[in-house]
Amino acid sequence: MEDNPLSIIKVNDNSQTQTTNNVKSRRLEAEAKYERIWLTQPTRFDPNHNALGRERITYTLSIIDQLFDIKGLNIVDIGCGNGILAKILSEQGGKVIASDIATNALKLVPNELATKQEALPETSFQDDEFDLCICTEVIPEMDHRDFRLAIAELARIIKPDGKVVCSTPIDIYSEDAAIRFRKLAETEFKILHWRPSYHSLYLKFLHFLKAPSKFFKAWRDQKKRVEGLKHRHGLNRWWFKINSRLIPQLIWAPIQLILSPVVYLFEQSRILVNLFEKICHFFQHERGISHVIFVAKRRPLLEERDEPPLPDRPPFRREVRWE
């Protein structure tokens, strides 16, 4: 049957079902991926694995301590990983549920914490269930098609006067990525606190130091080479392809051995992390943003606006004309 352009009711529309199925399909793929990672590489998402992760945990807790009295609050940590944040909040008196997409991650959470396997963009938590929702470093691990749904889900599960603490790395090679992320968050939230970090210079220098090792590993492991080529484009892809062949390894193999202790020092030194951040902030300002954390409350359906009152004016005089 042809669509009736005058009809305001669409019959047999399967688009909603298809969208739901797509979300579930992506959820199953992500679950399998992260179960495997937490089984084979449990330190990959451990924030204590490097100085930058430890720094982010420190200022996340600092913001929470400044803005919240944790004792007695119903809290959920979505994407809790091994439960570092959840454990600290529980010790401060919060009633915490540690939640992650991977059961292998939840096995690492301290036994005294309640755990539940859940994942954005859809959870089984009740509407208005939590006083505080923690969601750190989860958004960039999701499919971009689910970003909007994830933000809406965070807004759904907090109480009307509840808060969300959310953080994410920012793509340092994209234009206005931090601004776009803020606009995404503001579709559902009113932001109360916004804290950017300026580590793009540090990350670019670290990527430079790691390049010889990446070329060498891609040459030794064909699977890594294929994966590396898949995620690169243009000149960057060509450069990776050339340097992951046999002959360039005569150069990269000894260089990556020499740089290995330097890379370790850069990854583990909080002094260098903070020094590079100050330099980056001074020279690059907003262009140097590499990470943001925000605290927000649910945006009301009808926002009150402080608009000036209308000026006094005489009443309208209606003129009636008889013909």
Write a concise keyword list for the protein shown above.
323 residues; alpha/beta; Rossmann fold; seven-stranded mixed β-sheet; disordered N terminus
Write the layout of secondary structure elements.
Elements (H helix, E strand, L loop, with lengths): L14 H26 L10 H17 L6 E5 L5 H8 L3 E6 L2 H4 L7 E4 L12 E7 L10 H11 E12 L7 H9 L3 E9 L2 H21 L1 H9 L3 H10 L5 H20 L1 H15 L6 E8 L25
Parallel strand pairs: 1-2, 1-4, 2-3, 4-5
Antiparallel strand pairs: 5-7, 6-7
The dominant shape is globular
The largest sheet has its strands arranged as: 3-2-1-4-5-7-6
Indicate the radius of gyration in whole angstroms.
25 Å
Main sheet characteristics:
7 strands, mixed
Tell me, what is the CATH class of the domain at 22-169?
Alpha Beta
Tally of DSSP helical segments: 11
Kindly report the name of the CATH homologous superfamily of the domain at 22-169. Vaccinia Virus protein VP39
Percent in strands:
15-25%
Would you tell me which CATH topology of the domain at 22-169 applies?
A: Rossmann fold
Classification by helices and strands:
alpha/beta
- N-to-C series of helices and strands: HHEHEHEEHEHEHHHHHE
Straight-line N-to-C gap: 54 Å
CATH architecture of the domain at 22-169: 3-Layer(aba) Sandwich
Q: Report helical residue fraction.
A: 40-55%
The unreliable regions are: 1-13, 315-323
